[in-house]
Amino acid sequence: MQVDNTPHRRPELWFDDGSIVIQAENTQFRVHRSILAARSPVFKDMLSFPQPPDAGSESAEGCPLVRLHDSSAEVAVFLKAIFDSALTEFETVVGVLRLSHKYNVEYLRRRALIHLSSAFSTTLSRWDKILARAHSDEPLARALSMELNSWAMPRVGTLFAVLMPLVREVGAVWILPHLFYYLSSQFRNLSDEIFKIWTNIGIDGSPKECAQARLWAIDHTVEMTRTFPSVPLEVWREADWHLLEERVCWNCLIALREKHRAARQAFWDKLPGTYGLPPWEELEKMKVEAIGNIF
Predict the structure, then answer these.
(1) Are 118 and 151 in contact (CB under 8 A)?
(2) Potential cystine with 210: which of 16, 94, 134, 252 (Cβ 3.0-4.6 Å)?
């Protein structure tokens, strides 16, 4: 009896725009080389190793072919864990967390808390990292963003009705400041404080053009606060700085950036106290005790 050794594809792991074909046993997978290299230092080294012109490198569908000496079943599971973009369902995280807490299944409770905590920051630097990847135009950055948020965010009403009481029930208080911030829409009164960043700043030798540019920045900020009234940490983004740097001198730009950085950090530092919660240092300690120093 003749054995058919023709390689077959795994449809769920065969991407038409993939840049490399992985073959294990008789199964082929077409995936994205850049993401594979970003996730695995072993693959990064393997794929960056230059091949001599006469090495007779294999290819498939116009892509480099890499053969792995592993079982096709294990490679399929491994690649799916890397490339399957489906996030954990919100209902799964909530259900497992509630019942594992109720029935004291500690390892499941910790796992669910890790999932839940992945979407909520306790530091401004991590908030900015989540924000940058969420708004990135780079496919790789968006693909890697799942490492920062491992579950699908539901509608705001569901977050309020389900997550608010659950977080208090299981004692995950470190989530609350970011959650309150996300849910809040009462930040319009912060406009005056935001404008002080641009107006209440004196710089020796600041030319007339810089003063005019700061007035332009105020107008731009007004428009941003009307568009995004509930997200003060996002009122002025990196793209806005690129617009401003063409209008002001270097000294003004440095001073304004520092003023903006300090104002955002001060706002973040005060966030827990705004809602009657302990300071970030205590909340971070609670988080580490519950899930370890993961995020």
Answers:
(1) yes
(2) 252
Which residues lie across from 88 on neighbouring strands? Answer: 151
Compute the average pLDDT of residues 223-233: 59
DSSP 31: E
Q: What is the DSSP string of 125-176?
A: HHHHHHHHHHT---HHHHHHGGGT--B----HHHIIIIIHHHHHHHT-GGGH
Residue 88's nearest CA partner among 146, 138, 166 is: 146
Whether pTM > 0.90 for this model: the answer is no
d(CA 82, CA 134): 19
How close are the terminal C-alpha atoms of the chain, in Å?
56
Going by C-alpha positions, the residue among 131, 157, 162 that lies closest to residue 228 is 131
> Of 182, 180, 173, 178, which is closest to residue 284 (Cα–Cα)?
173
Cα distance between residue 152 and residue 119, in whole Å:
9
Q: How many CB atoms lie within 10 A of CB 78?
A: 16
Ordered by start, the domain boundaries in the chain are 8-83, 90-174, 188-272
% of the chain at pLDDT higher than 90: 33
H/E/C letters for each residue in 206-269?
CCHHHHHHHHHHHHHHHHHHHHCCCCHHHCCCHHHHHHHCCCCCHHHHHHHHHHHHHHHHHHHH
Average pLDDT over the chain, rounded to whole?
A: 79
